[in-house]
Design a protein that fits this description.
- The complex is a heterodimer of chains A (about 500) and B (about 400).
- Chain A has about 500 residues and is of the alpha+beta class.
- Chain A folds into 3 domains: about 160 residues, FAD/NAD(P)-binding domain (3-Layer(bba) Sandwich), CATH 3.50.50; about 150 residues, 2-Layer Sandwich (D-Amino Acid Oxidase, Chain A, domain 2); about 90 residues, no CATH class.
- Helix content of chain A is about 35%, strand content about 25%.
- Chain A has 13 helices and 23 strands.
- In chain A, strands 5, 6, 7, 14, 15, 16, 17, 18 and 19 form a 9-stranded mixed β-sheet that branches.
- In chain A, a hairpin with an 8-residue loop joins strand 15 and strand 16.
- In chain A, helix 1 runs parallel beside helix 5.
- Chain A is globular and about 65 Å long.
- The N and C termini of chain A lie far apart (about 55 Å).
- By secondary structure, chain B is of the alpha/beta class.
- Chain B has 2 domains: about 210 residues, FAD/NAD(P)-binding domain (3-Layer(bba) Sandwich); about 120 residues, Rossmann fold (3-Layer(aba) Sandwich).
- Helix content of chain B is about 35%, strand content about 20%.
- In chain B, the strands form 6 sheets. In chain B, strands 11-2-1-15-19 form a 5-stranded parallel β-sheet, with helices on one face. In chain B, strands 8-7-9-10 form a 4-stranded parallel β-sheet, sandwiched between helices.
- The radius of gyration of chain B is 22 Å and the shape is globular.
- Classes of the chains: A alpha+beta (about 500), B alpha/beta (about 400).
- At the A-B interface, helix 11 and helix 13 of A face strand 4, helix 4, helix 9 and helix 10 of B.
Chain lengths: ~500, ~400
């Protein structure tokens, strides 16, 4: 048995890979699947072009994995393509290095006449000097995560959300089991290896291996705008920096990001100053951005491995698989840190290789050719004879009832509550029908958690039409829907 | 010819202010760029419903003791006249209400929790004291959750709440909206279906309990439908609010608009973007003459106040920055009315109705005074008054 800690892309990817080799796995996730960094990204499926100059290895990996993901998870990828846009202020010298970098990494780049680009993307301002097309895409992260989890369970593995790792037991210096605390109470589980794929929490988890690793955590803020403001991914053709990616994600657009060092993984939440900075940066490329309606802001934590501690156990420069046994910690304990969503499969594969090497198991299956079992996905037509719960995303009562878990988990699986009303009406409806299953009080708690999660994204973007919308939502919730704590 | 008074906004405050101008014999234009908030609201006015975390029984006493509220200085007499004025306006407009109470009515919210309210449309459940109830639900209506409402009601009130579940009618499908339900129930086959189902299933419900339906009991014929239920079952029948689109507000909007039109008010649609010496500008450049302007755009919610990206608060029509508490006062020709005035938090306090009422009455009175106009019909002690036409 291998226990994987972390229900994000990396952890589920590792478990998916191991379960294909016949290794029994259990994934434990402290919150809901994808609640950490994997659920808080811009949705960009990198072509690799963004890293062509600064990080050629990542650029190559991204392009390879981009092509693999289109094959193994076509339902989770929207092949929009992407533009790299250089403005009059961006250096021409960088453009040449970038073209060379893309060529070296094998990323196909096509020059696009500025007039054509402006016609396709009217949101672009007047200062555009040069445009190139690249095979960027949009990745439906949650669909892929849920597909991996479903696949793991279908192959006999286990996925336990809301379960924390409290202790790793060892015998003669080797991992022998774990102690867990979760929804089902405390329990112990015998295992021969533990994989720490806890993202920003990996530093904390590694302390249980008697070999702590140091991470540098950085928070990246993103803004969600209503509507698809652009038909494809737009990158700035300049050294990677803040506010240079705009991704059309279903019927919203995500603009990011920033990079602010933070002390701990719990520091989630977009700040007003980062949002203001994004708006100013956005204005350089999209003059109309002030008129776009902001829906919410969110922040994800990037966990970067601090390689200065020890270079031992490094498998690649872009992400690291750490074999704690070889560094003087517990044998059978592994950590995987760093990397990108786009390259999660490769990280998972190399982590699985290290674990299988330790267990003496030979690789028999290749995840690069295995289709991930995806659900039809959110928004797929549902002709149930049940009323609609969420009109914005057209989620029916039956579609919601088919999912498992709390309201927040159902939101992720069906996209209810993600539209323009941000769950104002449907949050309440969903909670009411949930009350039939779990009881009124538990449903009210779930609704409160759902509301808190939605509200968090509004705090830093409380201006203009969004402020108006928030006031309206509050009035509807408190006055009309009777969502109050008061007792007679 | 004297230009009309311009009332900007088509929510409860704007409609009330316009009605008061009409009754004072003053020509009024209602200018708005949207439908207003009425369709979001079930129709009950709150005087003061909450005291901190508790439901409040006696709003009169709360206001008598009030400090620090923009309308703390209003006397009981002013409030009484204000509420009477409003209920008379509604009576004239053909919007029936429960009588004005001496204590807050007990009502039931869309969630099934007990609530308190002051001026309540006659179709909505309102009683002097909480009592056991029977909540009726329609299977195919997403917002009709009688079973859950009943659990909440009985827990919070410690009173019995029974449930009567009705199936989906013939021809129903999952796309039926609230309005579709309402128009079915007020159709002839819908009415017959409802009475038949009720008769068939009522046997299991205790005798004396009032029947509380979700707010889908017809659009124009709600009184007929509820009356028919009472005649055929011998029980009191009411609605409780449901999520928007709120039929209560839609009914009120229809009746009130019709009455205002009959009384000479003009409805003009367009976005007001500035205040001038002679009125307002709208549609960017055109001007609209007005003897005075009442800004009833509902604060941040209605778009009358805007929060800019730097956090500053602006009055959108007058394009002026607010220091914090100036919106209540008069500035030249513009008077402000609405539920979200500075110093008010109607969602937390349950006094949005009182703020709407008091600010509309003051806006109209202040405007008439400034213009030196005497109300053509009658003015009582409280300012704008109405002589009932018996």
């Amino acid at each position: 048995m291998v226990v994987v800690v972390g229900g994000g892309a990396t952890g589920l990817g590792v478990a998916w890979d191991l379960v294909q080799q016949g290794v029994p796995v259990t994934v434990v996730e402290q919150g809901d699947l994808g609640q950490g960094t994997s659920g808080r990204f811009h949705g960009l499926l990198h072509s690799g072009a963004r890293y062509a100059v600064e990080d050629p290895g990542t650029a190559r990996d991204c392009w390879t994995e981009n092509q693999i993901l289109r094959r193994i998870a076509p339902g989770a990828v929207e092949a929009t393509g992407g533009y790299f846009v250089a403005t009059a202020g961006d250096a021409e010298e960088y453009e040449e290095r970038w073209l060379l970098g893309c060529q070296t990494a094998g990323i196909p780049v096509r020059p696009v006449p500025v007039a054509e680009a402006r016609q396709r993307v009217p949101a672009l301002g007047g200062g555009v000097r040069r445009v190139y097309g690249v095979p960027d895409g949009v990745l439906e992260g949650f669909s892929l995560l849920l597909g991996l989890a479903k696949g793991i369970v279908a192959q006999g593995g286990a996925v336990w959300p809301r379960t924390r790792l409290t202790r790793v037991a060892s015998r003669a210096g080797s991992v022998s089991g774990v102690e867990l605390d979760g929804a089902g109470g405390r329990r112990t589980l015998a295992c021969s290896a533990v994989v720490n794929a806890a993202g920003p929490w990996a530093g904390e988890v590694s302390t249980r291996f008697e070999d702590p690793i140091a991470l540098r955590l950085a928070s990246g803020t993103m803004l969600v705008f209503a509507h698809r403001q652009v038909p494809l991914v737009i990158n700035r053709l300049a050294p990677p920096g803040d506010g240079d990616i705009l991704v059309p994600h279903r019927h919203v657009s995500i603009f990011g990001t920033t990079d602010v060092p933070v002390a701990h993984a719990g520091a989630l939440g977009a700040t007003v100053s980062e949002v203001q900075r994004l708006m100013e940066l956005g204005g350089e490329l999209y003059p109309g951005i002030e008129q776009w309606r902001v829906l919410r802001a969110f922040a994800g934590i990037r966990p970067l491995f601090d390689g200065g501690i020890s270079a031992e156990g490094w498998v690649s420069r872009e992400f690291a698989v750490i074999d704690h046994g070889r560094r003087g910690g517990m044998a059978g304990a592994f950590s995987v840190v760093g990397g990108k969503w786009t390259t999660y499969r490769k990280m998972a594969q190399e982590t699985a290789n290290a674990v299988m090497g330790y267990l003496g198991i030979r690789r028999t299956a290749d995840t690069a050719t295995l289709r991930v079992p995806l659900d039809p996905g959110p928004g797929s037509a549902d002709s149930d004879a049940t009323p609609l719960i969420c009109e914005c995303e057209r989620v029916s009562a039956a579609a919601l009832a088919r999912q498992n878990g709390s309201l927040s988990e159902r939101r992720v699986a069906t996209w209810f509550g993600m539209g323009p009303c941000q769950g104002t009406f449907c949050g309440d409806r969903a909670a009411q029908s949930r009350a039939r299953v779990v009881g009124v009080e538990a449903a009210e708690q779930e609704l409160a958690a759902f509301r808190a999660e939605r509200a968090k994204g509004m705090v830093a973007v409380r201006w203009g039409r969004n402020a108006q919308q928030e006031a309206l939502q509050q009035a509807i919730r408190w006055q009309t829907l009777g969502e109050r704590e008061e007792r007679p | 010819m004297t230009p009309p008074v311009l009332v900007i906004g088509r929510g409860p405050a704007g409609m009330l202010a316009a009605s008061l101008f009409c009754l004072a014999g003053v020509a009024v234009d209602l200018v708005a760029d949207g439908a207003g908030t009425l369709p979001l609201w079930s129709g009950a006015w709150h005087f003061r419903s909450y005291d901190g975390a508790r439901l409040l029984d006696d709003p009169w006493q709360w206001w008598a003791d009030a400090e620090g509220h923009p309308y703390a200085a209003w006397s009981s007499q002013q409030w009484r006249e204000g509420w009477q004025t409003l209920s008379q306006v509604w009576r004239l407009a053909g919007i029936p209400t429960h009588p004005l109470p001496s204590r807050n009515w007990w009502t039931v919210s869309a969630a099934g929790t007990p609530d308190r309210a002051f001026l309540v449309p006659a179709w909505q459940y309102a009683v002097p004291a909480a009592e056991p109830v029977c909540l009726v639900g329609f299977e195919g209506l997403a917002d009709s959750l009688a079973d859950v409402q009943a659990v909440r009601y009985s827990r919070r009130c410690n009173l019995r709440a029974e449930v009567l579940a009705l199936p989906s009618p013939p021809g129903w499908d999952g796309t039926w909206s609230t309005v579709r339900w309402a128009s079915y129930l007020e159709s002839e086959p819908g009415g017959a279906w409802l009475l038949e189902e009720l008769t068939r299933r009522l046997a299991g419900v205790s005798d004396e309990l009032p029947l509380l339906f979700p707010q889908v009991m017809g659009i124009r014929r709600v009184a007929d439908i509820l009356g028919a239920i009472t005649r055929s079952t011998g029980r009191r029948a009411y609605e409780v609010p449901a999520p928007p689109p709120a039929l209560g507000g839609i009914r009120i909007q229809e009746q009130w608009t019709r009455w205002l039109l009959r009384n000479g008010a003009r409805f003009r649609s367009g976005h007001v973007d500035g205040i001038t010496e002679d009125g307002v500008t709208w549609h960017h450049t055109q001007s609209l003459n007005g003897a005075a302007v009442v800004n009833a755009t509902g604060g941040v919610l209605g778009g009358g106040l805007a929060i800019r990206r730097d956090g500053s608060l602006w009055e959108t029509v007058a394009a002026r920055r607010l220091g914090g508490s100036s919106a209540l006062g008069q500035d030249g020709r513009v008077v402000t009315a609405g539920r979200q005035l500075p110093g008010c938090d109607p969602d937390r306090h349950g006094d949005g109705g009182a703020v709407n009422l008091a600010s509309a009455v003051e806006a109209v009175r202040g405007t008439l005074q400034r213009l030196g106009w005497q109300p053509a019909r009658s003015a009582g002690e409280g300012g704008v008054g109405i002589v009932e036409s018996h």
